[in-house]
TrEMBL record:
Its EC number is 2.7.7.7. This is DNA polymerase III subunit delta. One of its GO terms (cellular component) is DNA polymerase III complex. The keyword rRNA-binding does not apply.
């Protein structure tokens, strides 16, 4: 059966349910909301009992799952069996049980199933998707991929959540700025973002919220990753990159590790530009630079406007900051690692911004 996204789930749940669902992703809030919606649809279709298990590769009796899947209540003809695998690794016995359950679900079909099986997994990477047990479940049921909310989509997500509780921000540029501020406060922390939206519903009546009200109420609960730092710098976003860098340092991220992210991006740009100068096509240059995913698109946009001498100067700066992070001094640079990282990040941002502007 085809995979679903969260946006397709509501329409799907108006139809007859499949015998098996696999939910995978790393966003607890969205997973719980999808699971609640699936449970509600199942109850409406007569699945009135539920059994839940937390499986693991060791110290778990998978026969309990088989027994629950095979049993029927005297008072209810249909039941939900949920299996959560926190590590995504069921072990040899668990893999066999999951494959067996998937084959049973595929054989019985959705028309008269007494059991609805729901399997909850962390994000399924390529290695997991290639296992026989995952492939069997994918063939027998519906796979729901739960993607995190990207930063660019956060303002719309927040506006939608506010609308659901009868609130909104001002129209036009003022509203966009308010949502941008809200996004900065909760970025990377969706559960906290949800809680902050709910808090606004408790503090203020339905209607339009002013920026002053949101600023007075919303806590700064943003969380950033190393990938956020890389993307901000390669996008030429100077203020955002400095904010992300400061937050990561405040959270205890090691200066040496942060430097490795910046230096790695500089080296990727240098290698790719060098390959292009030697006549390699862009896809081959990006592969040589070991760039993929969002970073691949950022590099592809920057590289046509970058030149090796400028990138070589950045490499020299990265070499200096590497020494500072390890306790060495340099007369032309700040003596502490955080300040040196901030300066290196600004150099990278200026180069990325000029390359983007030149396009």
């Amino acid at each position: 059966m085809p995979a679903l996204t969260l946006s397709q789930l509501p329409q799907h749940l108006t139809q007859r349910l499949a015998p098996l669902y696999v939910l995978h992703g790393d966003e607890p809030l969205l997973e719980q909301e999808a699971l609640d919606a699936l449970r509600a649809a199942a109850r409406a279709q007569g699945f009135t009992e539920r059994s839940a298990f937390v499986g693991s590769a060791t110290q778990f009796d998978w026969s309990q799952v088989l027994a629950a899947s095979a049993s029927q209540s005297l008072f209810a003809q249909r039941q939900i069996v949920e299996i959560r695998l926190p590590t995504g690794k069921p072990g040899k016995e668990g893999a066999q049980v999951l494959q067996q359950l998937a084959e049973q679900a595929a054989a019985s079909g959705p028309s008269a199933d007494a059991t609805l099986l729901i399997v909850l997994l962390p994000r399924a990477d390529r290695s997991m998707q290639q296992t026989p047990w995952f492939a069997a479940m994918e063939q027998a049921g519906v796979v729901l991929r739960i993607d995190p909310v990207a930063r660019r989509d956060m303002p719309a997500w927040l506006a939608q959540r506010l609308k659901a509780q009868g609130q909104s921000v001002a129209s036009g540029e003022d509203g966009l700025q308010t949502l941008a501020f809200f996004t900065e406060c909760v970025e990377g922390n969706l559960m906290a973002a949800h809680q902050e939206v709910q808090k606004l519903g408790l503090l203020y009546p339905p209607g339009v919220l002013s920026r002053e009200q949101i600023e007075a109420s919303v806590l700064n609960v943003a969380r950033y990753s190393l990938q956020d730092l890389s993307e901000a710098i390669l996008s030429g976003q100077a203020l955002r990159s400095q904010r992300v860098l400061a937050a990561l340092l405040a959270e205890g991220e090691a200066a040496v590790r942060l430097h490795s992210v910046l230096a790695g991006d500089i080296l990727s740009l240098y290698r790719a530009r060098q390959a292009l100068d030697e006549g390699a096509p862009m896809p081959q240059a990006l592969r040589l630079a070991r760039a993929w995913g969002p970073k691949e698109k950022l590099l592809e946009r920057l590289l046509p406007r970058l030149r090796l001498p400028a990138l070589a100067r950045l490499l020299q700066s990265a070499h200096v900051v590497d020494g500072i992070c390890k306790g060495l001094k340099h007369p032309a640079w700040p003596q502490d690692a955080p300040a040196a990282l901030q300066r290196l990040g600004m150099q990278m941002c200026r180069l990325a911004h000029s390359a983007s502007a030149a396009r």
